[in-house]
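From the pipeline queue, job 12 of 40. The input is one protein chain; the requested action is below.

Action: predict structure.
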Amino acid sequence: MPESSKPRRQLNLNLFIYPGGHHEAAWRYPESDIDRLLDIDFYIDLARRAEAAAFDGIFFADGPALADNIRYASRFRVEPLTWLSAIGAATSRIGLIATASTTYNEPYNLARLFASLDHISKGRAGWNIVTTSAGQAAANFGLAQHPDHADRYVRANEFVDVIGKLWDSWEDGAVIADRESGIYADPDKIHAIDHVGAHFRVRGPFNTLRSPQGRPVYVQAGSSLDGRSFAARHAEAIFTAHQTLENAQEFYADIKARATALGRNPDHIKVLPGISPFIGATESEAHALHDAFNALTQPAYSLGLLRQITGVDLTGHDLDGPFPRELLRADSAKAIESRFQVVRDIVVRENPTIRQLTHKLAGARGHWVVVGTPEQVADSIETWFKNGAADGFNVMPPWFNGGFDIFTREVVPILRRRGLFREAYEGTTLREHYGLPRPESQFSEPARASA
C-alpha cells in the first residue's frame, strides 16, 4: 500500500479499572468513591464514560489470591468475567478485557467463559493472559508450592495453543440452519482437537459455535524474557510498565522484531504501556496533587509492595536513608521478574531514598506516572507514541471517578485536535478498534493450505 493511502496511525486507549484507583492510597483521598467499590452500577457508569470518550476498552486485573497487604489498601478482587458480562449488557462499543490465569484454570472451562462474553457483547471480549506471580495462590488450589517462572510459561504456551484450537474447532459456516432440509450444522466443519501434551489432554470439539471475533483478542502483561517470547508468539496487545522513553523504546523494538522473526505482522501487536496522570491547571497544582496522594501512603503497605516486587524486606530501615541496592537480587524467590527490572532501573538511575522509591511506586506499582498540565500530559503521550515507544496506553487514573473524568475532559480533546485519537468509533468489535484482523479457523481449508 502506498504511504499516502495508509490510514493515519492513531492511539489506542484503554481504561484500566482498579478498586478505588491506581494510587495505593486512593481509597483515603476525600474525592474517591470508596463506598461503591462493589456496586456494579459504579463500574457500568465508568464503562459508559469510557465509551462516550471512544476508548478502545476497559480492563480489569485479577488474581486468584488475596493480597498480603489488604489491611492498608483496597486491593481485593472481583471475578472480572462476571463483572464484564453485566457491563457488556449495558454498553455497545467499549471493549471488555479480563485477566485470567493459565496457571490456575483449565482451557476448556476458560474457553467457554470468554466465548460467552464475546457472544454477549457481540464481539468485544479480550483475554489478558497471565501466569500468576502470587505464590500464595497455590494453597487455594491444593498445591504444595507455586510453579516456578519458567514452568508457568511452558504451561501457558500449551494452554493458549489448546484454547485457540477449541475456539477454532467450529469453522465459520459450520451452522447451516436450513429449515427445509432439517440440517442445522455441518459436522465436517466441527473438529475434535485431540490435543495431548505435557499439561493437558483435551479431545474437543468446543460445545459452542465460533464467537463474533473468531476468538477474543489475546492480551498479555509481562516484560521478562519469557514474557517477551510469549508475547511475540501470541499477543495482539501488550500491557507493559516503563519509566523512561528509552526503556519503552527498547521493549517496543524488541517485541516488534521478535514478532516479525516469527512471521507475524508487527502492526498486529499493540504495545500499550501504563500511564497514571496527575493533572492540574498548572504544573505546581499537579505536583501538589501528587504530593497530597503520597502524603496518604502507609509505610507498612509501601514496604510490603516493595518486598513483593523485589523480594527485599526493608522493615526497620531508615526510610530517608539510601536504598541498599546491594540487596537487589533478581533470583529472589519473591521477586516479580519484569517489575523487578523496573525497580532496579529506578535505583540505578536515580539513587533514591527508600521513601522516594516507595513514593515512585505508590502511583501505579511501577507504571509511568506523569505529573503536569493537560498540555504536558498530552505532550508526553505524543512523544512516546511518535518515537517508537507505544501504540497507545492503558490509562490508570490515580482515583475514581475524578481522575478519569479530568483525563477525558482535559487531555483527550488535545489529543483529538492533534489528530492522535479518534473522534468516534469506526467499528463495533475490539478487534476493529485495535485494527486487528478476524482470524481464520486453523481448521478451515484456507488455513490448512497456508500452514
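Job complete. The CA atoms of residues 66 and 76 lie 6 Å apart.
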